[in-house]
Amino acid sequence: MSGSGFRGTKFVIQPFRHASQMDDEYANRTWQTLHDAIQEIHRQNASGLSFEELYRNAYNMVLHKFGDRLYNGLVDTITQHLREVAAEIQQASDEEFLLVLKDKWVKHKLSSIMIRDILMYMDRTYVPQHRKVPVYDRGLLIFRDEVCRHPRIKERLLSMLLDLIRRERSGEMIERGLVKTATEMLVELSREVYQQDFEQPFLQATAEFYASESSEYICQNSASDYMRKAEQRLAEENERVSHYLDASTDAKLREVSERELIAKHMRTLAEMAHSGVVSMLENERAADLKRAYGLFRRVKVPTDGLSMMREIMAKHIKGLGEKLVRDEELGKQPVLYVEKLLQLRDKYARVIEGAFDGDKQFYNTLNQSFEFFFNLNQRSPEYISLFVDEHMRKGVRSTSDEEVDTLLDKVVMLFRYLQEKDVFEKYYKQHLAKRLLGGRSASDDIEGLMIRKLKQECGYQFTSKLEGMFLDMKMSADTQQTFRDAHEGSSRVGDVELAVHVLTTGFWPTQAAAACALPEPINKCIDVFTKHYLKQHSNRRLTWQPNIGTAELKATFSGRRHEINVSTYQMCVLLLFNAADCISYADIATATKIPPPDLKRALHSLAC
């Protein structure tokens, strides 16, 4: 309403008041009319009633302070009617019991809605003022007490519902609609009624059913068969909730089913001979392992299911790995030793990826297991380096870049397990030095790739010397070219084609230079190169390392020419035979001054 004179004014519309007051006799007659109408509604004969007149009668009773008589009369009328209903339900046969109950429940709700409409004014005024239960809800409470919780009906209803569900679990077809109506009725009566009168006994019956079935089934079947059965049962229970149980039962039913079907039998399933989790792992049965993972992950108490699986997997892998690293025959074949380890890890990485959804905790278990047994063999660092050496020298020639990268990643994974990484570094430097100095590396790019991977894993400090070795090789090539340019484009000194690698002390796995009487042509080469080098680098000092040098010799035997690639020590020995056909060990030692262990090694290699 507009206008300044009415601004802020609040209007209250009072209910219409009759001029005359209602006396007790008139109230009784009015109530009798309402009582008869309610009975007709209960008999499903409401078509001849005037709801407008009935509403007005109820309105007048409340208006004239007869609300108590109206409300209490309503309660008595509904109570009497529902007692008669309860008697009818009790008389129903087992085949008709749920149908009769459903029919009476549906009719009661319909009647309650009609009665609520007639008594709407009482619901809006009298009920809240006197803190009474609303008309519709009061009807539900009476139905609860007089029908559903009637001793004979309550016990019979529960028994029939549990029996139907048991029969369905045993494979029979049941009328799910009747069960659904019954459970919905209990929920509508109240959550407390549903839980006490049905849910709690239902969960107890479920626990007993699956405790019996699972104990029997697990004794007669393999772990795989049992888990398929358990998976099927859990799916059925989930479907059961969606069809005729209240959603609030879902979590409780799942907890009971998982406890009886899985949690109580996890250890037995895991360790079952010839079919348990260990057998599944051994035979890489991905489908069975995936099913086990899906079932065990459901269990959190009293033991976490996946923790148990990881424990079993760790024990199994450690056993296999320990047997492998302690195999003496395998230890004599370093390359095969590493290949077996890689195959073992690949196998269980496939299992984790395919059956365990790439679960990081299972990968952690795999890594911890490898770290445990891999370090039991003190030669593991050396064997990894020898494996890389083998592939760097010849194994990668016919392999694609992607395969090389994958292989090196796997090697770095094994390297990651090593506790003594410095031991690996020592061996890797030695093997890399031999490849670089002997020209045996298949690819500088792949060598660089491996170093980058190690650098990524351990940092610059770890690979700085390895990178320094590559830098020395590049600088040596430049130095060799400078030497060639200074000698009219040739590296020959007399009859010797000279190739020198200048190595930085500290980068290379060099040893103290051993005494060795080099042949005169070689000494001449040393003098020429040293003078050339020191002209350019006056503040440096060259120390020659005959113990890591090589030589290519041309020899004639029985009229046939041969080219022989030998070490510097072997060269010194062989050149002695230009002057004699037979020389004693003592004379060779005196002439060459090679340390005895190195001399014996050189002679042994020549003899073989």
Q: Which descriptors would you attach to this protein?
A:
4 strands; two-stranded antiparallel ribbon; mainly alpha; 28 helices; single chain; 608 residues
Structure commentary:
- The protein is mainly α and 608 residues long.
- It is built from 28 helices and four strands.
- The chain has helices spanning 24-42, 51-63, 67-91, 94-118, 120-124, 126-129, 135-148, 151-169, 176-189, 191-220, 223-244, 249-261, 266-271, 277-282, 286-296, 305-325, 328-331, 334-355, 360-374, 380-395, 401-417, 421-438, 444-458, 460-486, 520-536, 568-576, 585-592, 596-607, and strands at 492-493, 496-497, 550-557, 560-567.
- The strands form two sheets. The protein has a two-stranded antiparallel sheet with strand order 1-2. Strands 3-4 form a two-stranded antiparallel ribbon.
- Strand 1 and strand 2 form a beta hairpin.
- Helix 1 (24-42) packs parallel to helix 3, helix 10 runs parallel beside helix 12 (249-261) and helix 23 (444-458) runs antiparallel to helix 24 (460-486).
- The protein is rod-shaped, with a radius of gyration of 48 Å.
- The termini are far apart.
